[in-house]
Amino acid sequence: MPADPGQVPVIAVASGKGGVGKTTVAVNLALALAASGLRAGLVDADLYGPDVPRMLGLRRRSDSRQLTVFGVKGSPAARLQAVERHGLQIASAAFLMGEAQGLGIDAGIAQLLVRRLIDDTEWDELDCLVVDLPPGTADIQQFVFALPGRPVHILAVVTPQVIAHQDVRRLLADLRRRATMRGRVGLTLGGVENMSGMICGRCGELTPMFPPAPAEDSIWGEIERLASIPFSPQAASDADSGRPVMLTRAVPEQVAAYELLAARLRERLEHREPAQGEPAQGRPAASKPAASEPTEGEAADSGPASAAGGG
After folding, report:
1. CB 126, CB 33: distance < 8 Å
2. How many domains does one find in the chain?
3. Residue 37 lies in a domain
4. Do 151 and 202 touch, CB atoms closer than 8 A?
5. Integer CA distances (angstroms), 70 to 168, 200, 251, in order
6. Residue 189 belongs to what H/E stretch?
7. Which of 129, 255, 261, 308 could form a disulfide with 41 if both were Cys (CB 3.0 to 4.6 A apart)?
8. Residue 140 belongs to domain with CATH number
9. Within a domain: residue 143?
10. How many CB atoms lie within 10 A of CB 70?
């Protein structure tokens, strides 16, 4: 584990467009990393659709009357409490408001809130932090990509469709532009092909869901494909009920893909490039056991309320 919490490596799960299953990938990747022995955190930075808690069986139905975006240093509202669930430490805007409430804030406030979720949460000795980003290349993404003082690794999620590839190519081009202007912004670890095919619920045969992007439009000539994850109606139904596939293990093809992805990312993290201003030497992540899982009552009752930080 990095000695300084501000040096915990970030895996920023990004996409060029919505609807590619980015949050599903982020949740199951974090669970797979925890299952491999890492102490993993998960930040739900998609402020306008913070769905991570519900995918993990956590819901806040009551509306919030106010939202504390900034707390005076040293005050009770200055820190947020991470919620533990299935061995993960989680921070999400969904803990600060009701599930039927929207978050209408400008770019500056959005970046401040994401900074709080990442830096002002009481994390317990993390080895890595998975951050689920909104789709595209707007303010929240730019803020996370340029986090100072810590290594930021970018994992792109795409489906086989040409439009999904086109939008990720825009994302990659923007990262190259920012790196040219400001120095290294983040290291792109690679990509995940989600919904690579559909698993038949009866025979188990894998059939294509989308026509593949032509070679000249594909991102796979620019970044490495780390894993291909097939779509399963069973896994999708379980996820809607707060039971991700890395917990149910009901679809072996998906479990194997996420375990492969976690192993490849862990290898890259342990041989990572240094953050800006950090000596050029590797610092492997420690292999501590994952945090113990709370009881259902603790997760549902005390978790979201304590994360509200007075909000």
Report:
1. no
2. 1
3. yes
4. no
5. 33, 49, 42
6. strand 187-199
7. 129
8. 3.40.50.300
9. yes
10. 13
Q: How many CB atoms lie within 10 A of CB 148?
A: 9
Give the pLDDT confidence of 217-252 residue by residue, as tens digits: 999 999 999 999 999 999 999 999 999 999 999 999
Q: Which of 33, 142, 52 is nearest to 96 (CA)?
A: 52
Q: Would you say residue 169 lies in a domain?
A: yes
Element (H, E) at 228: strand 225-231
Tokens of 76: 């009770």
* One-letter amino acid for residue 86 of the chain: H
Q: In this structure, which amino acid lies at residue 166?
A: Q
Nearest to 133 by CA among 17, 18, 13, 265: 13
Residue 170: count other Cβ atoms within 10 Å of its Cβ: 14
Contact 269, 33 (CB under 8 A): no
pLDDT level of residue 65 (50, 70, 90 thresholds) = low
- Nearest-5° Cα angle at 155, 154 to 158: 135
Domain that holds residue 84: 11-274+294-307
In a domain, 285, yes or no: no
What number of CA atoms fall less than 13 Å from residue 158's CA on the CB side? 29
Condensed to tens digits (0 to 9), the pLDDT of residues 69-124 reads: 666 676 666 788 899 999 999 999 888 877 767 777 788 888 988 999 999 899 99
For residue 70, give both structure tokens. Answer: 């900034």
pTM: 0.83
Query: Which pair of tokens denotes residue 152?
Result: 């930021």
Confidence band for 209, pLDDT divided at 50, 70 and 90: very high
Q: Which two tokens stand for residue 62?
A: 């009551």
Phi then psi for residue 100, to 5 deg, are -95, 0
CA dihedral for 252, 46, 112, 79, sign (positive or negative):
negative
